[in-house]
Amino acid sequence: MGDSGTAAPSSQTVDVDGRHFKVSNLDKVLYPLTGTTKADLIAYYAAIAPTILPHLAGRGVTLVRHPNGVGEPGFFEKRCPSHRPDWLDTVDDPGDKRGAIAACALDEPAALVWTANLAALELHTHMALGDDLDTPTMLVLDLDPGPDVDLSGCCEVALWLREVLDSVDLMGFAKTSGSKGMQLYVPLNTPHDYDHTSSFALAMGQLLAKREPKRVLTEMTKAKRNGKVFIDWSQNTRHKTTITPYSTRARDRPTVSTPISWDEVTAGADGEPLSFDIHDVPDRVEELGDLFADTLTLKQHLPQRG
């Protein structure tokens, strides 16, 4: 944001597709380890907007904001800030026991840049769209490595889960979490409820835990997780969210939750590093396209409940 060789101003008014608004504190360092600034974050989201927006559109987005960078405490923000621009719409989010709340609708590049200016380092979304909160469009399995397990262990478990999906004629799509683990998505885009997705996700996890009891578990008890991968099936509920594909993470480095191919998962199981950051992902998308694009349109049906 500024000419090469010329220091960018700390604040400026930007024009994003005809939306004019102010961005500020552009020189604020949000990732001290790498020196990554708010300007860098905004530049990433402006570049990745065409790819990430379809995965955000129509869904309530929970922002994880770190105004002072990753070295300081952040906070979750489900309700869209009251000071949002009048052109930024909202979408229903399940909210809490008092009912749905108005979350930010990130459906255009300007909205994405505006939330990046809030130092929203993570974007989390629901499995269901805001206009049909009880109908998940996909199922997710969160693979969380315990102590003494790295990402290669998660990749191995993901390959086992793919075998289970293949056995019932379902396709799955993998992505890194941008943190320690990874997620496996099963697109549905057909009528399902959370009882169905949750029970099927649990059954898959239990099947593997029975087959590989020294490597896999589905219980949240931390004392049992040493050397194992926890298959978190519980994300498949109305109020839970998962990190959105192509979202940055509030880690030491500006890593990104990145879709990966099954060939890459196989390589990851053999120890190939699978960590991507804001500098890698735009070029990667230019070369490979959106490896998660089919999750938005592929229609699949889970096996009928017995």
From TrEMBL:
This is DNA primase-like protein. PANTHER family: BIFUNCTIONAL NON-HOMOLOGOUS END JOINING PROTEIN LIGD. It comes from Candidatus Neomicrothrix parvicella RN1. It comes from the Bacteria. Residues 37-292 form the DNA ligase D polymerase domain. It holds the Pfam family LigD_Prim-Pol. CDD domains: LigD_Pol_like.
